Amino acid sequence: MSSEGADVCLTDMGDTYLAECVTPKGEELLKKMGDLPAADEALETKRQELSDAAEKEVNSSVSCLACGTCTYLCPTCHCFDITDEVKREDGKRIRSWDSCMSWLFTIETSGHNPRPSQKERWRQRLMHKFKYFADNFDAIACVGCGRCVMYCPVNIDIRKIVTDISKL
Ligand code: SF4
Ligand code: SF4
To answer: Which of 52, 99, 115, 167 is the most exposed place for a label (fewest CB within 10 A)?
Structure first.
């Protein structure tokens, strides 16, 4: 649990809230609320248990959101989309950035999508970087910059996935 950016941190203890002042501004605010009972050791232990349980829950249940941040920031990702824009006799073929993390990236005109869920899209990203690219160009498509790890909103870590797979 992080209290970064907060003046007061509130923890839901079930039948009450534990309020912790993080900044002088927060302290001032709590003082204005009158004489509040101080937290004892048992309350602090319970707060820590709740915090650990919440962290465990987040780490075990959050999966890829398909936001595309990792592919947008990656210096080796280079996927794109092609669209034709036509105006009377004139037209333009436009290339724009796209991401294999997106559902739309692989959907076919028939409506069939060969990568229907984020599981298949992630597999493709991983295999492209560490298998197909290596087979074709004798190099992996990851320079180890760590941008995807730093900015993934749900903390998916490509290093951990590669390490886990290498143990299979
Ligand atoms: S660590 Fe590898 S996969 Fe992640 S952004 Fe950098 S080059 Fe791309
Ligand atoms: S791995 Fe993370 S950054 Fe990449 S699409 Fe999924 S949620 Fe977004």
So the answer is: 167
* Mean pLDDT of the 40-48 span: 87
**Domain parsing of the chain, residue ranges:** 8-61, 69-166
Ligand 1 is surrounded, with C-beta below 6 A, by 73-76, 129, 142-148, 158
Concatenate the DSSP letters of all residues of the chain into one string.
---TT-SEEEEE-SSSEEEEE-SHHHHHHHHHT--PPPP-HHHHHHHHHHHHHHHHHHHHH-------HHHHH-SS---EEEEEEEETTEEEEEEEE--TTSGGGS--TTS--SS-SHHHHHHHHHHIIIIIHHHHHSS-S-----HHHHH-TT---HHHHHHHHHT-
The finding on whether 26 has its CB within 6 A of some atom of ligand 2 is no
Q: What would the pLDDT profile of 92-133 be if each residue is shown by its tens digit?
A: 999 999 999 999 999 999 999 999 999 999 999 999 999 999
Q: Looking at the CA of 119, which ligand is closest?
A: 2
Question: What residue owns the CA closest to ligand 1's atom 8?
Answer: 74
